[in-house]
Amino acid sequence: MRRRKMKPIHMERTIYGDGSGDSLANVIELPGVGRHEQIHVAGWPPLDPFVEGSSGFWSMSAEGALNHSQQYAIESQSFVLHATAVLSDAGIDVMRTKGSPIMGTPLGGCSAIIGPDGRVLKKANTGGEELIIADIDLTDATKAKLFADASGHYSRPDLLWLGADTTRKTVVRVQKSADGRTEASE
C-alpha cells in the first residue's frame, strides 16, 4: 500500500509536501476483514516526558501524544499501535543536534497498544527499543462500533456530509482552457 499524510505537521514540513486525494481511502484489506479500519498505526517522533512549568507543549510530550492516540482509538473504534521513535546518542551524532532543544538528548521509546475503547492494553517500559506484544480480538472493535458508531448509526448523511476528491493530484497539471488552448497550472 502507498499512502501519504494529507498535511505534514511541525518538522515534517521541512521534508514532505501535502498528500493527494488518492491517500484518503487507503486501507489494507485482509482476508475476512471489511474495509473499515480496525487497526491504526500511529507513528510519533522521539518524545520527552512532560515537565510541569516547561515552555514545551504537553500535546507533543510522551503523555500528550499517548492521549492523542487514545482519543483516536475512541473516535475510530479501532486498535491503535502507538509507535514512538527512539533517539540514541549515535542518532544525535548523525543529525548533529547534540544539546539542541529538539532532538538534542537521547530519548527512550514510549510505545503502546491501545484498544478501541481507549484503554492501554500494553505499554513500553520507556527505557529504549522494546518489542511490545498484546493479543487483540477484532470483535472488540465491532463491539465499540455497536456502542457509538459515528459513521454508522449516529451519522446523519442526510444533514451533514463530507465530500472528498480521491483522485491523485500532481503538482503540475495540464488542462484545456475554455478557448481550447493548453495551459499548465500549479
Automatic annotation (TrEMBL):
Q: Spell out the family assignment given in the record's similarity comment.
A: Belongs to the carbon-nitrogen hydrolase superfamily. Nitrilase family.
Q: What is the lineage of its organism?
A: Eukaryota, Fungi, Dikarya, Ascomycota, Pezizomycotina
The protein here is known as: nitrilase
Keyword Oxidoreductase attached: no
Top-level lineage group? Eukaryota
Q: Where is the CN hydrolase domain?
A: 1-138
Could you tell me the EC number(s) of this protein?
3.5.5.1
- Kindly state which keywords UniProt assigns to this record, in alphabetical order: Hydrolase
Database matches in PANTHER family:
ARYLACETONITRILASE, NITRILASE
What top-level class of enzyme does the UniProt entry assign?
hydrolase
Q: Does the keyword Isomerase apply?
A: no
Its source organism is Trichoderma semiorbis
GO molecular function list: nitrilase activity
User: By its UniProt entry, which PROSITE patterns does this protein fall under?
Assistant: CN_HYDROLASE
* Reactions the enzyme catalyzes: a nitrile + 2 H2O = a carboxylate + NH4(+)
